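Researcher: Sequence recovery benchmark, item below. Answer with residues only.
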């Protein structure tokens, strides 16, 4: 196990600023997920931790030791990539044994056999040891790639979108297995993904990255319920949070798009607000069939476990999550109620959450 600390890390590739002042801690034995869109700088962050890239500025520490300039082989980090990079001419057994046969580790064959067989049992791939990669499914290849990392007992697992090449069902199964494996090993996992569902289900904490800037770090619940800014509010959650323009006047909150006026004291218990605000509300915090305000059903999306109703109110489309049993028809006019206690307020200029 290991603790990783990045302190004010910056990285540039030509004119592109990949990372800007990243300060982040991965705690000993933690499953930390780095979440962000394509091009956010997630893979670059992992490569800097592993030593495959050096920061232009800032420091990387593993267990309190500064790693700047230390070769990858001397950091004892295991990197699991999106593409599994198995050796096609070798059996599963030999793929797993490969790191231990390197000049760096120089392990006796009897010890290699013990370690390979142990890892194979943990990953439930004992029956695959004599096959070659082209005879394996995607999930089996993923397990072998993970096993090759596990076999040398690294200090930290660096995982770069390792589930993205799997189909939806297998991805769900592997999420469960990965989380269970990490807990059983007591290992430190630094996991990169663009998928907020993976982040929310796997992470002890989630770090959200965008355009090389760290946006927020917190538990999955904190990131979902209390996003630090508009970007996090929109990126985390499916469908994304409803954001409505509002202004304050005479102790009232006026929501422009809904032509709705509310007593400010009902929806805000904090300090002073700016005259203009953005009001955020998750789709599950709008109740259809209740209240006095009325909207028109524009679209109904059936997701199986529930439905998403697009409700037109004037020129505004609200995203509303409803139970799968709920029946609504396009064009139907229905009352709706906003859960005022769930309102989040953002500054429209800085886009930071207020309060």
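Model:
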């Amino acid at each position: 196990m290991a603790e990783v600390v990045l302190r004010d890390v910056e990285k540039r590739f030509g004119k592109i600023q990949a990372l800007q002042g990243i300060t982040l801690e991965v705690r000993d034995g933690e499953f930390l997920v780095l979440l962000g869109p394509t091009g956010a700088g997630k893979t670059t962050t992992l490569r800097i931790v592993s030593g495959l890239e050096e920061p232009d500025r800032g420091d990387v520490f593993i267990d309190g030791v500064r790693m700047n300039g230390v070769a990858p082989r001397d950091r004892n980090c295991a990197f699991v990539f999106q593409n599994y990079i198995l050796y096609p001419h070798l059996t599963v057994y030999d793929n797993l044994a490969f790191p231990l046969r390197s000049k760096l580790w120089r392990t006796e064959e009897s010890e290699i056999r013990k370690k390979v067989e142990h890892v194979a049992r943990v990953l439930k791939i004992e029956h695959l040891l004599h096959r070659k990669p082209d005879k394996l499914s995607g999930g089996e290849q993923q397990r072998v790639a993970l096993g090759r990392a596990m076999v040398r007992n690294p200090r930290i697992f660096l995982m770069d979108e390792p589930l993205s090449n799997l189909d939806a069902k297998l991805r769900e199964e592997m999420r469960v297995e990965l989380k269970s494996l990490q807990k059983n090993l007591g290992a430190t996992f630094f996991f990169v993904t663009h998928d907020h569902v993976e982040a929310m289900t796997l992470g002890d904490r989630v770090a959200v990255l965008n355009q090389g800037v760290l946006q927020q770090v917190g538990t999955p619940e904190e990131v979902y319920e209390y996003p630090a800014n508009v970007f996090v509010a929109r990126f985390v959650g499916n469908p994304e949070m409803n954001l409505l323009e509002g202004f304050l006047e005479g102790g009232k909150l006026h929501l422009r798009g809904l032509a709705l006026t509310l007593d400010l004291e009902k929806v805000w218990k904090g300090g002073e607000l700016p005259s203009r605000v953005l009001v955020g509300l998750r789709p599950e915090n709008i109740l259809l069939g209740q209240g006095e305000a009325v909207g028109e059903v524009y679209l109904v999306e059936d997701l199986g476990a529930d439905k998403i109703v697009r409700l037109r109110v004037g020129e505004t489309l609200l995203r509303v999550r409803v139970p799968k049993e709920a029946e609504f028809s396009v064009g139907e006019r229905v009352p709706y109620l906003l859960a005022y206690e769930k309102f989040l307020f953002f500054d429209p200029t800085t886009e930071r959450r207020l309060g």
